[in-house]
Design brief:
Elements lengths: L49 H21 L5 H15 L8 H18 L2 H9 L1 H24 L7 H5 L5 H10 L4 H30 L17 H20 L5 H15 L9 H16 L4 H7 L3 H26 L3 H8 L4 H9 L5 H27 L8
Helix pairs in contact: 1-2, 2-11, 3-9, 3-10, 3-11, 5-13, 5-16, 7-8, 8-13, 8-14, 8-15, 9-10, 13-14, 14-16, 15-16
Organism: Thalassospira marina
Pfam families: AbrB
Protein name: Ammonia monooxygenase
C-alpha cells in the first residue's frame, strides 16, 4: 500500500503549506501578499517567545472557558480554546498543538463516543437504517451540489469547492483533492471554516434551547467536574483507546485515531468487557486540545490566500447548515424527536465537535451519535468517490 502524500488537513497539526497547485494566484482568488513577503505585516505574537505564547494560550483559554461556562454555553471548553486559538493564529502565533497530542485527544473522544453506544442503539439503527442512510445521503448530495455551484460560478478555482464542501472526512478530502489537482490549502481552509461555523451555530442553538426550555424559576444543573472515579477502569479505557488509535494511524485510515477507538470501545462496552471511565476534567482537557488544534490553523498566510472567496465560502456553509436544519424539522414533525436533538443529529459535522456539544447538553445523545456516526462512515466510504464523480462535470479551465 503506497503512502499518500502528506497534505494539510484539520486532522494534522501545524500550519498548512501551499501545494504546487497553489503557487500561482488561481482564478476567483485575488492574489494577496503573504505575511512572509509583506514587510508591512506586523508579526505581533510571532516575536514573543514560545513559552510566553503557551502561557498566553493556556491562561486566555482558561479565562474564556470559565466565562462561557458561567453563561452556560454548551461545550465551553471546546468553544473557548477554539476562539483563543483563532485570535492567536491570525495574529501570527508560532506555537502548534503537536500532532500526537491531537491524535491522543481524538482517541479519548472516540472512547467517549464508543462508551455511549449500547445494544439498544445498534438495534434502533438496524430498525431505522433506511431513514438514517437516506438523511445522510441527502446531506452528501446537498453539500456536493453547493460545492459544484461554487466551482461553475468560478468562486473557487478548479474543483476546490467540491472537495471543501464535504460535511466531514476532512483529511481524506484534502488528500484526494490534491491528487485530483485541486488547491489543497484552500480545501483545508474550507474545512476549517465549516467546523468553526458548525460549532458556533450549534453551541448558540443549544444554549438558546436549554435556556428557553427551563421551567420558570429553575436553575441550570451544576456540572460536577471532579467526581470520584475508578482509576483502574480509567487506565484500561485509555489503554484500549490508545492502542486502537495507534492501529488506525499505522494503517493510515482517514480519521483512524477517532474511528478505531469508537469501534473497539463500542464492541467491548456492549459485550460488557469494558466499563468506560472518563472523568469530566479529563474530557475538558481533551475538548480544549481539539479546540486549539482547530483555531491555531487559521494563520495569516491561509487568510490572505482565501480572503476574496471567504464571503461566498461562508454563504455556502450557512446554506448547508440551513439545509440540514430543514431536515431536522422533518425529524421533529414525523418522528417526534425533540428539536435540539434533531438539530444536532443532522448538523453537518464534524462528529467530534457535535459529540462534545451533545455531551454537554440534555439531549438524546445515543440518537445523535447514531446519526452523526452514520454520516461519518458514509462520508468516508462514498464522499470521496461522490466528489470525484461531481468533479468530472466541472470545467477544469480554472485550475
Amino acid at each position: 500500500m503506497s503512502k499518500p502524500p502528506h497534505t494539510p488537513s484539520p486532522d494534522d497539526s501545524g500550519s498548512p503549506h501551499a501545494s504546487p497547485a497553489s503557487n500561482a494566484a488561481p482564478s476567483g482568488i485575488t492574489a494577496q501578499p503573504t505575511p512572509d513577503n509583506d514587510k508591512s505585516t506586523v508579526r505581533r505574537l510571532g516575536n514573543i517567545p514560545e513559552l510566553a505564547q503557551w502561557a498566553l494560550l493556556l491562561g486566555s483559554s482558561l479565562l474564556m472557558g470559565i466565562v462561557l461556562h458561567h453563561f452556560h454555553v454548551p461545550a465551553a471548553l471546546l468553544l473557548g480554546p477554539m476562539i483563543v486559538g483563532i485570535v492567536m493564529g491570525t495574529n501570527s502565533a508560532t506555537i502548534r498543538i503537536p500532532r500526537t497530542s491531537f491524535l491522543a485527544a481524538q482517541s479519548v473522544l472516540g472512547a467517549m463516543i464508543g462508551g455511549s453506544m449500547t445494544a439498544a442503539i445498534i438495534t434502533s439503527f438496524v430498525d431505522e437504517w433506511v431513514l438514517v442512510i437516506g438523511i445522510t445521503f441527502i446531506t452528501l448530495l446537498a453539500s456536493s451540489f453547493l460545492g459544484w455551484v461554487l466551482c461553475i460560478r468560478r468562486v473557487l478555482p478548479g474543483t476546490v469547492g467540491i472537495w471543501g464542501s464535504s460535511p466531514g472526512a476532512a483529511s481524506a478530502m484534502v488528500i484526494m483533492a490534491e491528487a485530483f489537482g485541486a488547491d489543497a490549502r484552500l480545501v483545508a481552509f474550507m474545512q476549517y471554516v465549516r467546523v468553526v461555523c458548525v460549532v458556533t451555530v450549534a453551541s448558540m442553538v443549544a444554549n438558546f434551547w436549554v435556556s428557553s426550555s427551563l421551567p420558570p424559576g429553575a436553575e441550570m444543573p451544576v456540572h460536577e467536574w471532579f467526581p470520584a472515579f475508578d482509576i483502574g477502569n480509567f487506565g484500561l479505557t485509555l489503554l484500549v483507546a490508545g492502542i486502537s488509535a495507534t492501529l488506525g494511524v499505522i494503517l493510515r485510515v482517514p480519521s483512524g485515531a477517532l474511528l478505531f477507538p469508537i469501534i473497539t470501545v463500542m464492541v467491548m462496552h456492549i459485550n460488557g468487557w469494558l466499563n468506560v471511565e472518563l472523568p469530566e476534567w479529563f474530557l475538558g482537557l481533551t475538548y480544549a486540545i481539539i479546540g486549539w488544534s482547530i483555531g491555531l490553523k487559521f494563520t495569516p498566510a491561509v487568510l490572505h490566500h482565501a480572503a476574496s472567496a471567504l464571503p461566498k465560502i461562508l454563504l455556502s456553509i450557512v446554506m448547508l447548515i440551513g439545509f440540514c436544519a430543514g431536515i431536522s424539522v422533518l425529524l421533529v414533525q414525523f418522528l417526534g424527536v425533540d428539536p435540539l436533538t434533531a438539530y444536532l443529529a443532522t448538523s453537518p459535522g464534524g462528529l467530534d465537535s457535535v459529540a462534545i456539544i451533545a455531551a454537554s447538553t440534555h439531549v438524546d445523545l445515543p440518537f445523535i451519535l447514531v446519526m452523526q456516526s452514520a454520516r461519518f462512515f458514509m462520508v468516508l466510504l462514498i464522499g470521496p468517490p461522490l466528489a470525484k464523480a461531481v468533479a468530472r462535470f466541472t470545467p477544469q479551465s480554472q485550475t
